[in-house]
Amino acid sequence: MNSSDRDLYTLERIHLSQQPVHQRDLARIIGLSLGMTNAILKRLAQKGLLQVKKINNRNIQYVVSSKGLEEIARRSYRYLKRTIKNVVDYQQAIDRLIQEVSARGFRRLVLVGNSDLDFIVEHLCGKHHLAFERTPALPANGALEGEPAAGGPRAFVLHSENMQPPEKTAMRSASLRSLFSAGIPVRSREGEPEE
Questions:
Q1: Which domains does the chain have, with CATH numbers?
Q2: Backbone angles phi and psi of 157, in degrees to 5
Q3: pTM for this structure?
């Protein structure tokens, strides 16, 4: 996590807290040393994103300022825009793969493992007239249930992005993780750090 991410995370934790947050508690929540947490809080106060109110000699209260709330909203909006762009890129990459799979004569696609993108894969299979199935794992022998003995339409196996891709990818399988790492460039607009 870079310093910009830590700053935002710290602001969010303070803002979302139902009770006053102490430095020690905040350090534990964000997983940093007390000294590093103190430095972050000072930097946020200097930027005007955080207000520091001394309650007594032992207690200090931290409150996210209106400028801090604007910063949280701005960064959250940028994150949402990037997420939507990534989903569109993933959808296009999966669509190209499924079109190719359909063109090669497969009539069934089996998604192996849990995937955050299963709804996209299922939708695109329907669009390209492929039967869609999910399975948590392939059997040790790699055989799929309902697979014809020989010559008939076979299933294409797609490993989820949450699984380690197989070392050898057969002509009838692919990996979402490999597809994304090879096929989707990471983009950022000029002046916007990639987070």
A1: 3-64 (1.10.10.10), 82-183 (3.40.1010)
A2: -105, 125
A3: 0.63
